[in-house]
Amino acid sequence: MTAPAPTPQNERQIGRFSLRSFRAKFMLVVGIAVLFDLALAGGIGIWNVQRLSRDATKQVGDGLTTATEEYLQTYIDTTAFRADLLINRVHSELATLASTMQTLIDHPDIQEAVGETVSKSPDFSSPLVYDPKGGWVQNEAGVPSAVSVWGYLLDENMQPVPKAAEELKKSSFLSLVGPSMMSTGAPKLQIYYVGPKDASIMRATPYSEQAQTFDLLYPGHNEGPNFWDFFFPGVYEGWQGWIEDPSSRPVASDIVTTAPYVDAITGELIVSFFHPLWSADRKDLAGMVAVDITLEQLTSLVESLEISETGFGFLAMSDGNVVATNSIGEKTLGLVSTDVSGQGVTGVNRNLTESSQAAIASLDLGATRDTVIEHIFLDHGGEEVPYLLVLKQLNPTNLWDGAGITGETMTLGFVVSEREIYQSLIDATDNISAATTRILNYQVIAFLFSIVVVFLAVYAISGRITKGLSRLADAAKALQNKDYSVRVEIPTRDEVAAVGLAFNRMAEEISYHTENLENLVEERTKKLENANSEIVALNARLKSENLRLGAELDVARRIQEMVLPRRSELDIIPQIEIAAFMEPADEVGGDYYDVLFDGEHIKVGIGDVTGHGLESGVLMLMVQSVARALQEKGDRDPVAFLDVLNRAVYKNIARTRSDKHLTLAFVDYHEGKVTLSGQHEEVLIIRANGETERIDTMDLGFPVGLEEDILPFVATLVLPFGPEDILILHTDGITEAENDRGEMFGLDRLSQSAHENRLKSAKGIAEAVITDVKSHIGGHKVFDDITLVVLKHR
Amino acid sequence: MDISTNDYRVWTEGSTIHYEGTMRLSGTDAYAPILEGMNAILAAKPDLITLDLTSLQFLNSSGINLLAKFTIEIRKQPDVGVRVLGSKSIPWQSKSLRNLQRLHPALELTIS
């Protein structure tokens, strides 16, 4: 049978740069490790930068929001305070004038005197002139105040009725204080006085052609019934109501404001503040003093507010009408201007509730007096733009709403684009984002660069590392191609070098073995030959040794055979039939039996020498010789017989330095009696009538050769032995014969076997017992010598 | 001493020597290692040497010779007491062990 051809798999070439090469795998592993490391480090770096950016943006954003809101709140509070201050200033000036006039009313004589004096002075009073076209009377220009007496206050001579004339006088005081009030304090358009309902003349400073203007703007005003009901219906009655119940005033002030309106004379957006004058008895009205101001100051305050880039302020009435805001505000708030014609005065309306921006239209201006900050979204061409809305209410005032007096609270509002507020933050975030991108780019570049560097380095190093392996592989291939001279040279001192060294040794050995195979075979053959001859010699020696041992055993066997009594000796014994059987376990047994017959006495001995072999055989020969000698000497005393025998044997054992001894018992027969002596196995006697006796011999003696003097232990036992009586002696080889199960044959079986065959001759009994013993042993090992002596009385 | 085979085991515990199993060693030479161990105990001259044979099912004649020789050795040392423990249920013991006592009357034989 031939060896299988190498498979193509084993033969496959592994290229230097093949993916299967060790170098490629090495590079792959290192490359992946570096890749992983860089990716992890880079990823963590970028993640941290981004988190830092996010956290910083949030913190700065929160801070910015807080700062901005605080700033706006302070700003709006201050602005509201300024607006209130502006209005309060006018209010206080008006109140001062009203208070002065009231003092005069309360003191009619002084009022009379002052009126008389002033009306007579050409510096303060000019003649009244009837205007036929208008149907009213008005003083001529050139004095501080213009006073008009409407048609319904003239009599048939076109002269003021007495009550009106009286009012003319009373009101002339205004010419005194009016100019100085106009030139000081808050900028005012005009200060004027209107008489009570039944004499509602109007005096205003500075002088203007007021009646003409009224005719132009408010046709029908000269028809009556009076100034109040035509221009400001409801105000007079409202005030009258206050007399009865001062607490019915919406705001705890007598001053009532009009809603802003376009002034008929100047065309400016103006507001009038009215202050009632009471009759001396405080039961009715005595007219009023009023101030017109333009809202220019207030609106410029609001419109000039600079909040961020496109932030603006606005001022709105409680009904949502925006009184002031700039163009950006108007556009941002989505306001639509509508002209509103009221009775007497013309108003403007740019109402928040009509705003095109839902967030603005739904604003609740009357919510609270506290500053409110809301984040709202305004629609800019479909885009929801976040705005910050701040609202602050001004001080409340009493307002004439065209029908009566109600309370009014104007609201100041700021609107700022959150985008502007957060512009710097957005810029910063953009910068951070750009920086993150930059870092990421650098990371990627560094990463790629690292990979290239690492791969180049690994490539270079791996070449060195795998060089040894490549050389080994080449060398192994060369070796496979039967080039036994190949040797590997590995410059490194690592494990590969160790393998190379081992390879070289192996190659050397292969080379040596291959090249010296014949020599080797020859050498080995020679060695084998030597070994063979040694074995032959040994074998020869062994054979001779065996022969020697065999010879010794032969001698021993001869001795044993020689010692045992002949069959012919036994047959001539007259009274007793004796049959004996002996089978040694080994070549030479340790058992002994003898039958000594001197023509008169029969002495049968049985013994068991410890051990086997030549030594035991010699001991047996000694015992036999001594026993024969004693028998021949005629020593009839069994005790003395055994004692002498023991002494002789003991001494001989001592001389031969043997460590053996033996059990030994004798049966002496003489005239129908047997005398037992010596210690051995039990003696079995089967009487002619079938009764069986077992006689223990332990107390009849002692092992022979063990002690010098056994006399104290030796005794005799005399038993009758008549015709057909049977006496059986045996050695322990019979009773201790084992079968396969380790069961011993035992004395019981021996006794039974002999008993069953008691009618046979001694020989027959012996044969039957031995047959039983043999069948008991079966195929089992025979451990000990088997000896059986059967005596049967003839 | 602790000699153990498939058939028997002989071991010592202090000055007590235990015998167990079936001993059929062929001759005195085969028993030599056991006798050596027994003599080693005797050499230490203990007050009492105990031979525990209660588990020794069988002992061949060479073994009995060994015990007898050892008893004679002990007898030479009057200071050393000896006690032999045997078992009634083992037939050879009740007969053979009495010889040991005869060899050395001071030997204490307990067959239980």
- Which band does the percent of strand residues of chain A land in? 15-25%
- Name given to the CATH architecture of chain B: 2-Layer Sandwich
Tell me about the largest β-sheet of chain B: 6 strands, mixed
The number of strands of chain B is 6
**What integer is the average pLDDT of chain B?**
89
Largest sheet of chain A: 13 strands, mixed
Helix content of chain B: 25-40%
Specify the oligomeric state.
heterodimer
- What average pLDDT do the residues of chain A reach? 85
Short description:
The complex is a heterodimer of chains A (794) and B (112). Chain A has 794 residues and is an alpha+beta fold. Chain A has 21 helices and 28 strands.
Describe the overall structure.
The complex is a heterodimer of chains A (794) and B (112). Chain A is an alpha+beta fold and 794 residues long. Among the domains of chain A are: 86-294, no CATH class; 565-793, Phosphatase 2c, domain 1, CATH 3.60.40.10. In chain A, 46% of the residues lie in helices and 21% in strands. In chain A, helix 15 runs parallel beside helix 17 and helix 17 packs antiparallel against helix 18. The model of chain A is unreliable at 1-11 and 342-346 (pLDDT under 50). Chain B is α/β, with parallel strands linked by helices. Chain B has one domain (2-111): STAS domain (Transcription Regulator spoIIAA, 2-Layer Sandwich). Chain B has a 6-stranded mixed beta sheet, covered by helices on one side. In chain B, strand 4, helix 2 and strand 5 (81-86) form a beta-alpha-beta unit. The longest helix of chain B is centred in the N-terminal third of the chain and has 16 residues, at 28-43. The model of chain B has no long low-confidence stretch (mean pLDDT 89). Classes of the chains: A alpha+beta (794), B alpha/beta (112). Chain A binds chain B through residues 590, 608-613, 659-661, 663, 679, 696, 698, 702-703, 706-707, 713, 732, 736, 783-784, and chain B through 24, 26-28, 58, 60-62, 64-65, 68-69, 72, 95, 98-99, 102-103.
